[in-house]
């Protein structure tokens, strides 16, 4: 297989994430799935685990699941292992990792103005939904194009994380 350039990689991970979102309607897992399609260091178990982040981090109206998955992937790439954190090199890596996750957060905020699922819902759907409230959850899942609209957030979260993880590969 021919080596992909950066833009082809970004397009591929975004496409895979969006397809998963439209198929499964699980923003957090779709984001991580798209990233895993290129980044081999992401274990399959991480894709599985991210289901728990859907609906604003465990359906708790917290941080956007797509945002959280991108943040976790950036952490997998840049965070030092706990055993190495106290070494001189580990402390330097940790500072760089903190800078990276701040960069990811700031890029997401520039794009959407928030990292919170309910605030994104207001922007996308005109109101927020409390997934712990049965009527709100029913109303949300009755929106005919919700997967497609959430896919736009998944696409951007995936692309932002992938761009950061590819920075040192050029």
Radius of gyration: 16 Å
Helix amount: 55-70%
What overall form do the CA principal axes indicate?
Answer: globular
Main sheet summary = none
What count of domains describes the coordinates? Answer: 1
The helix tally amounts to 9
Poorly predicted residue ranges: none
Strand percentage lies at under 5%
End-to-end distance: 19 Å
Number of strands: 0
Query: What's the overall average pLDDT, rounded?
Result: 89
Order of helices and strands: HHHHHHHHH
Structural class: mainly alpha
Notes on the protein architecture:
There is one protein chain. The protein has about 170 residues and is an all-alpha fold. The chain has one domain (about 5-165). About 70% of the residues lie in helices and about 0% in strands. It is built from 9 helices and no strands. The chain has helices spanning about 5-25, 25-35, 45-50, 55, 65-80, 90-110, 115-125, 135-140, 145-165. Helix 1 (about 5-25) runs antiparallel to helix 2, helix 5 (about 65-80) runs parallel beside helix 9 and helix 6 (about 90-110) runs antiparallel to helix 9 (about 145-165). The protein starts with 5 loop residues before the first helix and ends with a helix.
What is the compact description of this entry?
The protein has 170 residues and is mainly α.
């Amino acid at each position: 297989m021919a080596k992909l350039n950066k833009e082809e990689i970004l397009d591929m991970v975004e496409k895979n994430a969006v397809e998963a979102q439209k198929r499964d309607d699980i923003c957090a897992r779709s984001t991580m799935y798209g990233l895993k399609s290129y980044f081999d260091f992401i274990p399959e178990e991480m894709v599985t685990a991210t289901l728990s982040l859907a609906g604003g981090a465990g359906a708790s109206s917290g941080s956007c699941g797509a945002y959280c998955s991108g943040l976790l992937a950036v952490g997998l790439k840049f965070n030092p292992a706990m055993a190495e954190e106290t070494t001189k090199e580990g402390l330097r890596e940790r500072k760089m990792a903190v800078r990276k996750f701040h960069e990811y957060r700031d890029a997401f905020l520039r794009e959407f103005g928030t990292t919170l699922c309910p605030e994104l819902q207001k922007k996308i759907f005109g109101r927020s939904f409390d997934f712990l409230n049965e009527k709100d959850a029913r109303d949300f899942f009755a929106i005919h194009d919700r997967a497609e609209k959430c896919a736009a957030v998944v696409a951007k979260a995936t692309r932002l994380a992938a761009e950061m993880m590819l920075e040192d590969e050029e």
